[in-house]
Write a structure and sequence with these properties.
217 residues, five-stranded mixed beta sheet, 6 helices, 33% helix
Length: 217
């Protein structure tokens, strides 16, 4: 299980017991005892839905070592996060290009079906890779920023449980052309990047920049 998946699984398990991520081992055991008694099928006319969900959550937290008494088990331990970079699949890149293409106005003599790059301009950008560090995302875009208006199409649902990849177009203004970095505002992250804590977009990003991402902060 990846670190991000483990964090989400722990949060879900604690939520099933009615707890947040600040809960300690005593809180977890007390919550389970309370639910085990009040939600037991014998007290719910045979309905075991809540009881079964809580038991599964408690068993998971127990396997994670978060229910054991002792001075070092006051709060759940977060798994050590590691950085990783993945190359985007061609389908994701094509989806970004298509989104940029359909968002542009077409002239009357153009075909209804355009090739992925037909209507792209120098100020339109598509990433080739994305870096992960926990819930922090870094997109690597090979093209440089253009002075003035820019748009970048990004796959946004990497940290969500959605089966289908979602793609969004973000627009921004740049004072200068060349390499650069855009930090996505928190309001946009909340609405467009489910599960992400921060999002950065690096432009004119080469392989060395991706390699440097692996280095410790």
């Amino acid at each position: 299980m990846e670190p991000v998946e483990k964090i989400n699984a722990r949060a879900d398990a604690l939520g099933a017991l009615g707890l947040d991520q600040t809960a300690g081992s005593d809180d977890i055991r007390d919550a389970w005892r309370h639910i085990a008694f009040h939600a037991h099928p014998d007290h719910k006319n045979g309905d075991c839905t809540h009881f079964a969900r809580a038991k599964e959550a408690y068993d998971f937290l127990r396997r994670e070592g978060l229910t054991t008494k002792g001075p070092t088990t006051g709060k759940p331990r977060r798994p050590k996060l590691r950085k990783r970079v993945i190359e985007l699949e061609s389908a994701d890149i094509d989806a970004c290009r298509v989104l940029l293409n359909t968002a542009l106005a077409h002239s009357s003599d153009q075909s209804d079906v355009a090739s992925p790059k037909q209507n792209e301009t120098d100020s339109d950008h598509v990433p080739e890779a994305v870096g992960f560090y926990g819930r922090h995302l870094t997109y690597f875009v090979p093209t440089p920023v253009c002075e003035g208006s820019n748009r970048v199409a990004l796959p946004t649902s990497f940290l969500a449980s959605a089966r289908r990849t979602e793609t969004e177009v973000l627009s921004f203004q740049a004072k200068d052309a060349g390499p650069g970095e855009v930090v996505v505002p928190e309001a946009i992250i909340t609405s467009k990047f489910p599960g992400a804590k921060s999002v950065r977009i690096k432009f004119d990003a080469d392989q060395r920049m991706r390699d440097d991402f692996w280095l410790p902060n």
